[in-house]
């Protein structure tokens, strides 16, 4: 193997490798990268090129599936108002139900990520879709029972596993991976509109959610025929001649169907020990807690500010989903200016949304600006989280790395429930501004990440060695 750079194509054959004058040098570079801690994984298999039609077909199916299943729980404000039509649940109870669904949306993806890497895309996606179908049936039949509703929302939250299973389709678009991943994060955000659509069609959830469960069943059947059995979206190639290898690899580079250029193989554990991964998870976890609190409390916060008829609550769901239009913009920004710049922009937008929400005296029309800032900021935060892992750590261990980060952030986000309870007790302004302050405090990380990107294409420093260096410098 060789230490591939951007735009290179790696071939393990002397006839087509273009390294006859420097093979010993490249061998030493490979050894140095493996021993020295290059933290990017790869698969060793050769792959056949993927047709243009097949690539876009897989992307289209992934986009539709994620749009209908992955982020349903974040349409909670619309479902909350529907539930209040038939029951007098307290805000604490409603907050607990949302927390259950939000936790499964975040934490459940870890299991799906590991499952995808181990058992393949088709089977794990099928399980995620099955969870959404069962959860939809539960919501349709719960009749205001808080326990059944909580279990059903928890099950629907597991549909987020479909996103983690399908995001590696971005490996089929190596020159536009950031844009593709951001687009799929936009699809996740679109799914937040589903509850509003269903409750707008009819207040009777038996019909709307029952029909929705049937739609998800049909989608699951389609997944059995469309998705690959294995964890890769690239078809495995058969042994070929040297000339065939050269021709195939050349076509990969020309049509863009080859995954990002391979780098020295390391384990998922090696990547988890990197300083960049540790700091990425810290940034993401700090961001997720305020993001979850916002969705869980925005309904009653807007009502406290005069939204008696629920117009602005419904508008939030529309803005939240509509922000998906900007998903390719976030991906393009990361491809052009880097992850650090885009992550910093996303963090700042979210901080502004909390700052505005904390003002009780401003008009609801001004609060719309905050709703927009939140929706775009959230879209970019999640999009850049997945883009960071895909671009900096590659896709060999994508499910495990992304899933672990989601699990850790899910544990941290359990604090959203006491925050919702405190906000419901008329302390919402304090909580809003505390969230804004926490987001501002993590902006220096984004500047550091931007510098890391300029220095190296891949993370090369382990967290342990960084701590050791810091300790030595202080002693």
Automatic annotation (TrEMBL):
Ranges annotated as spanning the membrane: 56-74, 94-112, 124-141, 147-166, 178-201, 207-228, 277-299, 311-330, 337-359, 365-386, 398-419, 431-449
One GO process term, biological-process aspect: amino acid transport
Topology with respect to the bilayer: Multi-pass membrane protein
Subcellular location per the Swiss-Prot or TrEMBL entry: Membrane
Matches recorded under Pfam families: MFS_1
Record's keyword terms, sorted: Amino-acid transport, Membrane, Transmembrane, Transmembrane helix, Transport
GO cellular component: membrane
Gene Ontology molecular function: any one: transmembrane transporter activity
Major localisation: membrane
Biased composition (Basic and acidic residues): 1-17
Annotated region described as Disordered, given as residue ranges: 1-44
InterPro entries the UniProt entry points to: MFS, MFS_trans_sf, SLC43A_AATransporter
Similarity comment: Belongs to the SLC43A transporter (TC 2.A.1.44) family.
Record protein name field: Major facilitator superfamily (MFS) profile domain-containing protein
């Amino acid at each position: 193997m060789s230490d591939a750079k951007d735009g290179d194509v790696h071939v393990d054959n002397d006839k087509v490798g273009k390294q006859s004058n420097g093979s010993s040098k490249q061998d030493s570079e490979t050894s140095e990268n493996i021993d020295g801690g290059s933290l990017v994984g790869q698969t060793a298999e050769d792959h056949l090129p993927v047709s243009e039609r097949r690539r876009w077909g897989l992307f289209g199916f992934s986009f539709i599936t994620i749009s209908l299943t992955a982020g349903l729980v974040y349409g909670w404000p619309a479902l909350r108002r529907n539930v209040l039509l038939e029951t007098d649940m307290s805000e604490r109870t409603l907050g607990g139900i949302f927390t259950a669904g939000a936790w499964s949306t975040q934490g459940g993806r870890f299991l799906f990520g590991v499952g995808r890497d181990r058992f393949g895309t088709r089977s794990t996606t099928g399980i995620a879709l099955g969870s959404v179908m069962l959860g939809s049936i539960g919501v349709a039949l719960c009749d205001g029972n808080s326990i059944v509703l909580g279990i059903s929302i928890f099950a629907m939250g597991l549909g987020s596993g479909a996103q983690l299973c399908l995001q590696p389709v971005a490996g089929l678009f190596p020159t536009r991976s950031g844009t593709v991943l951001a687009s799929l994060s936009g699809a996740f955000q679109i799914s937040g509109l589903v509850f509003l659509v269903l409750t707008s069609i009819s207040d009777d959830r038996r019909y709307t959610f029952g029909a929705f469960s049937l739609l998800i069943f049909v989608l699951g059947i389609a997944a059995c025929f469309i998705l690959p059995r294995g964890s890769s979206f690239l078809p495995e190639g058969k042994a070929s001649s040297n000339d065939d290898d050269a021709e195939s690899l050349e076509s990969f580079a020309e049509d863009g169907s080859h995954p990002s250029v391979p780098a020295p193989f390391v384990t998922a554990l090696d990547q988890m020990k990197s300083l960049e991964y540790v700091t990425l998870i810290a940034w993401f976890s700090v961001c997720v807690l305020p993001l979850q609190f916002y969705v869980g409390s925005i309904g009653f916060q807007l009502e406290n500010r005069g939204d008696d008829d629920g117009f602005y609550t419904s508008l939030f769901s529309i803005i939240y989903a509509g922000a998906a239009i900007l998903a390719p913009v976030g991906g393009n920004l990361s491809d052009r200016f880097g992850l650090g710049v885009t992550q910093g922009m996303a963090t700042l937008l979210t901080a502004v949304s909390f700052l505005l929400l904390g003002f009780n005296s401003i008009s609801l029309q001004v609060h719309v600006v905050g709703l927009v800032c939140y929706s775009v900021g959230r879209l970019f935060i999640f999009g850049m989280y997945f883009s960071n892992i895909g671009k900096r750590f590659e896709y060999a261990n994508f499910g495990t790395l992304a899933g672990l980060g989601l699990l850790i952030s899910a544990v941290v986000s359990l604090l959203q429930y006491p925050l919702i309870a405190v906000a419901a007790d008329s302390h919402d302004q304090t909580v809003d501004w505390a969230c804004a302050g926490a987001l501002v405090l993590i902006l220096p990380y984004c500047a550091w990440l931007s510098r890391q990107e300029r220095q190296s294409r891949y993370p090369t420093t382990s967290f342990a060695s960084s701590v050791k260096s810091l300790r030595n410098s202080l002693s």
